[in-house]
Amino acid sequence: MDNRDSVKRPRRVTINDIAEATGFAASTVSRALSRPGRVNAATRERIVAVARELSYVPNTHARALTSGRTETVAVLVSDVTNPFYFGLIRGTQHQLKAAGYAHLLIDTENSGELESHMLSKMRQSIDGAIMATSRLSHRLLAALATELPLVAVNRMVRGVESVVLDSPSGVAQATEHLISLGHSDIVYMSGPENSWSNEARWRSLIAAAARHGLPVRRLGPFPAGRMSGSAAADALINTRATACIAFNDLLAIGMLTRLRERGVGVPGEISVVGCDDMFGADFCHPTLTTLAAPIEQAGRVAVSMLLARLNDSAPATRQSAVLPTHLIVRESTGPAPR
């Protein structure tokens, strides 16, 4: 006989066990543990103390069946290996933990189809979702928001609550910075075509350059990773432009490596600006001029907005929060070559 069959598993402590030990009704114990505001303080303290003594662990599955809540929130990111998301994940996790919610992290691999599939699969296991840089179409994201409480980060869609990092204004700052250094030929190194922020940054560059009567060009799209930097740098060299703004820091840092390999001076011959101020942007050579954004705060704000909806304290109209970005000037930008 398998030895495991002879070892009895300890029985789970239930609400009835706590009720028997305290002398209170099981319904009172249930309220004290799940809705403490509905039980007087002395009763609640007695029940909580006994629950702790008995090592009571709530049965979250049973609670979900009775309350319709799982106390779990999914956080979807397009690429979990991208350092840009580290702050967002930390912000959402801290805020959810403080509210007593579990944090379910899902990597959607830059795929709107995978986003939709995972949310459909997990629908009965989560109360809501934080969707960072969603790759779903506007129509599908708006439709999903009618079925599941959610907050989008870095997407602005009518009918969907959102937290947006104002990188377009940061791109405008970067454009003014490059123009002030004498650059008149600026190229945008485009990121994924299905990225909302990619298009928003490109439009901002067009508008900022137009105010000075300057044309701009766009190269790409390029995958938003460091390995794409080599192809992006080669394409940039062929344009003979003197400056570029890259979709994100990963792409920009990959470009710096390739430009150095090809003997192109940065910023002597080409100035490079990134976006996100990710970890490592100030360690590369040369250090990267980039846009800084309060990404951890964005995660916290997104969770607060979602929990307000779940607790029925959110306003009837969908809200959006816009968080500012600012340019950090480092060594990768300098005067245009003469």
TrEMBL record:
Domain called HTH lacI-type: residue spans: 13-67
UniProt keyword list: DNA-binding, Transcription, Transcription regulation
Classification via Pfam families: LacI (PF00356), Peripla_BP_3 (PF13377)
Residues forming coiled coils: none
One Gene Ontology MF term: DNA-binding transcription factor activity
Protein name, UniProt field: Transcriptional regulator, LacI family
Lineage, top ranks: Bacteria, Bacillati, Actinomycetota, Actinomycetes, Streptosporangiales
